């Protein structure tokens, strides 16, 4: 209906007090300015200016057009400035496996917000398999997910591994110290959702050679796992970082024999370089630095 050139001409007429003054300021012929305004009024089916013997003034519709147009011009100038000056702005669609929301994500986002205050984040928390598909379908810009689910053609950077432990509410379950595989397999277990690597690892650890399979319940929500374990529904396989972040649950780690220990979870941050190279590299930098900070904090805590 109208372009930025139309807006600039109307602004010049208002600013300089008339068509003739606007002609002198813009270098356009007065007839060309009048014709442009008339054509704009015809297209929009409104009157922008009221004409009288003393000059012109904006109509009510014209005032609203100018007010709204000022917002558009400001946005245009901001976008051009950000693009030409290398400012990172806009929305970043970030997919995150829930385990990482309690580890590096807060530090990573705080760093990015400080460095790039114009960035906005839309965070999707899901299983790594779902995140992988969203990344392929261009539903996400950057993803933090388990390494076994990485799609082809991505740029990938490993992140620090996440350690898992067996946890229980001591008021509901008493196990020998240390507990063995048979002790664990005899109890209901709450773990990661079926089909994920950590769920398969638990099944492989507990099931071989047994006439009766272990009762393993899966949940994509770590918060649900914590609540179920806290209420005595079963024992749980829970990342140490998550248990530490929820001390009010009162869960205690089960001491186990070496044969019953759970493998670490390997995560990576990734993106499709042909679509999101610039923002992907910057989010990766922040994630790696957040991972280093986390590792340093763990070492300092251990020493203290």
Automatic annotation (TrEMBL):
One of its GO terms (molecular function) is DNA binding. The keyword DNA repair does not apply. This is LysR family transcriptional regulator. Residues 2-59 form the HTH lysR-type domain. Belongs to the LysR transcriptional regulatory family. Keywords: DNA-binding, Transcription, Transcription regulation. It comes from the Bacteria. Pfam families: HTH_1 (PF00126), LysR_substrate (PF03466).
